[in-house]
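Researcher: Next sequence.
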Amino acid sequence: MHEGKVDAATKTFEVVENNASERLDRWLATQIPELSRARIQALIKDGHVSRDGRTIVEPNTRVKPAEFYDVEVPEAEPAAVAGEAIPLKVVFEDHSVIVIDKPAGLVVHPAAGHATGTLVNALIAHCGDSLSGVGGVKRPGIVHRLDKDTSGLLVVAKNDAAHQSLSDQFKSHGEDGRLHRAYLALVWGVPVRPKGVIDAALARSTSNRTKIAVSRHETARRALTHYEVVETFTGATPAATVSLLRLILETGRTHQIRVHLAHIGHPVLADPVYGTGFKTREALLNPRAQALAERMHRQALHAAELGFEHPKSGKPKLFESPLPADMAQLIAALKLPAEPAKKPKSTEKQSSPRSHNK
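Model: Next structure:
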């Protein structure tokens, strides 16, 4: 390979015998590893690649030995979202990725009702010029999300190639062994079996479009959640008993863990969307636990483990996050001696647990 700069934004590459008849986009992806193949395809289609002064716009063009290709890579455009100086807990950062321990209450991406004050705003300010461009824009590459009120680990790409690599890993959902995600959740009651798999397809609720529901509709997407009971906190009555579960995702659907756990009759504590029918159980907890549960104002769900293959080095990376203070304090309170049961203020509406083990 011969490489020489035509100008500040253009590079020239020579095709060698070993690359004969290879697709242009695939070959250029090996020559410019900092760009994803999708980005290279876009550059070709937009007229930024030429051969002997002639613009080439077909990504599937077959290259030949001794051909020279000029590739113009425009400067990444500024992000449309403004950076904001929002404190971040950075677990790991290098030129390719940044791993954040997200607090509950922080929205990941700007959307209706949350135009500012998001993780993306914070990352643009924090990373600055180290964001070399995702899809031609200086923005962080969001490859997965956590609900606003779910805390824990989240990885973000800082360049195009890292974004492509991480996106591929999340699409495989760990089937190829590269990706690992585990969560901790406090739930009402104790599952019938100490470990199992919840296999229930999910779709947008037909009665409330802001919610997700278990569905048999043809549009529903398969969702699998593996769970294991880590610890059980026995209350004064079975209704006041709480369990700490460790959950591993085999798929990554919206609200998957929260919907699945509610589906089997063990919703996440303090879940304001999928656990409202169990709200009255808080009155059955000991006074300390009851007060802490009432103050949480968010589902007791935490992304505790995150592993992936580093986009550049190819080496496995694994990170762990301790339970946040609100969940840790609630667990400590649940371990206090149980007190005589109190009668709930109103009749609790409960759904019978469903079968959830293969």
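Model: Confidence is low (pLDDT under 50) at residues 1-8. Helices lie at 24-31, 37-45, 119-127, 160-172, 256-263, 287-296, 325-334.
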